[in-house]
Write a structure and sequence with these properties.
The chain is an alpha/beta fold. The chain contains eight helices and twelve strands. 24% of the residues lie in helices and 19% in strands. InterPro entries: AB_hydrolase_fold.
């Protein structure tokens, strides 16, 4: 029998745009898949707090997941907010992507655990939203990390403000359709980047790719970078309590990292390269472009890649140098959206959801990398296993 809904093609969107993320598959017979999200296995409970930061006439929304030593009680944060659910519904996604999801492990405004905790700045993929990776933030919070995930006004799929106002992504900020010739040129550039033997060769391939219409999403980069700087400049106010959150006096500002998925992975790596306060960065299956044309890595950086669909393991590896050694992990059987919570809802063509082990493996490796660089733990490089290919 034919599927009523199939996984959407992960071509160009594998690295830049992700308007077409894979959706849950329904079979002709039987019930839709029911999401099973992993229980965080760290020693802490998970607190959640959402707030806004205003700087002059600009504002951003920040969603915080953090460790708590208190009893888990009270209101739970939801995996998908109503405004995002409406956009998904309007775009024709199945209800299983935004309704009937299990209760989260995040409790609103729990007290933060005693002491200071490493800070992780997170940027989501293009046209998506922060909570699309909420189980990852819960996992990290349970192990003692504070994740601050940015909502980018008019770029994030939908933001519900403190006033109740809903801000959706502007049509002109979304990915625009391109012709097949431009798409083919762009993909050829990605393939050349993934096999480049030098940074010069990598830059040349990137230069060709950036001349296509496909690269129009780069026009939003400066805005996303500026939004991250608003957050960084507000750290002292969060720490002092001038911006009221449960995080007052709990940020370890000597242990800051940035990470992100897809487009957000690119932003996060460049953010670390430009800001000495950020000690380490991780790019979850994203291409690099824009400011990286003539730059090498200045801080420890790791690239996590998928090897299924239109994926290009090793895409950015030519950017490493003698000072910053290569850190490149490819996750077997992962596709681009395996680096989000969709790994727990996406079904393959047999109707089965097989992404649970992949999502957990990504979580463990991400934690080990941060532990090594922010907590001085000796957990890197990882032990070889059948689930990953590493450089």
């Amino acid at each position: 029998m034919k599927w009523k809904l199939r996984l959407l093609k992960l071509a160009l969107t594998s690295f830049l745009v992700l308007l077409q993320w894979p959706i849950t598959v329904y079979a002709e017979q039987g019930e839709p898949q029911t999401a099973v999200f992993p229980k965080p296995d760290g020693r802490y409970q998970i607190g959640f707090h959402q707030f806004e930061i205003t700087e002059h006439n600009k504002w951003i929304q920040v969603s915080a997941w953090y460790p708590s030593g208190s009893r888990a009680t009270g209101e739970r944060a939801t995996y998908v907010i109503p405004a995002v659910a409406k956009v998904l519904q309007d775009k024709g996604f199945p209800e299983t992507e935004y309704q009937g999801l299990p209760p989260s492990w995040s409790f609103v405004d729990l007290p933060t655990a005693t002491g200071k905790h490493p800070v992780l700045i997170y940027n989501h993929g293009f046209s998506t939203f922060p909570r699309q990776s909420m189980t990852r933030f819960e996992y990290l919070a349970s192990h003692g990390y504070i994740t601050l995930a940015l909502g980018h006004p008019e770029d994030t799929m939908a933001i519900e403000r403190e006033t109740g106002e809903v801000i959706v992504q502007l049509a002109e900020n979304a990915f625009q359709a391109v012709d097949e010739a431009d798409l083919a040129t762009f993909i050829a550039g990605l393939k050349r980047m993934s096999t480049a033997k030098s940074q010069i060769e990598w830059q040349d391939a990137l230069g060709v790719a950036l001349k296509t219409q496909v690269s129009n999403t780069t026009k939003r980069f400066d805005t996303w970078y500026a939004n991250n700087m608003i957050l960084i400049r507000a750290f002292d106010k969060i720490q002092s309590g001038a911006i009221s959150t449960p995080l007052q006096n709990h940020l370890d500002l000597e242990a800051i990292a940035s990470f992100g998925h897809s487009y957000g992975g690119n932003v996060s790596v460049i953010l670390a390269n430009k800001n000495p306060a950020i000690k380490v960065s991780v790019n979850l299956d994203g291409a690099l472009f824009n400011w990286t044309m003539n730059e090498k890595r200045q801080v420890p950086t790791c690239f996590f890649y998928a090897n299924q669909g239109e994926s290009y393991p090793g895409l950015n590896d030519s950017l490493f140098n003698d000072t910053i050694p290569v850190c490149s992990l490819t996750f077997n059987d992962a596709n681009h959206m395996s680096f989000t919570d969709l790994t727990y809802t996406m079904a393959d063509e047999s109707g089965k959801v097989n992404g649970y082990p992949i999502g957990q493996e990504i979580n463990r490796k991400l934690k080990d990398y941060f532990d090594t660089h922010l907590k001085q733990a000796n957990r890197w490089p990882p032990e070889p296993n059948e689930n990953i290919i590493q450089k």
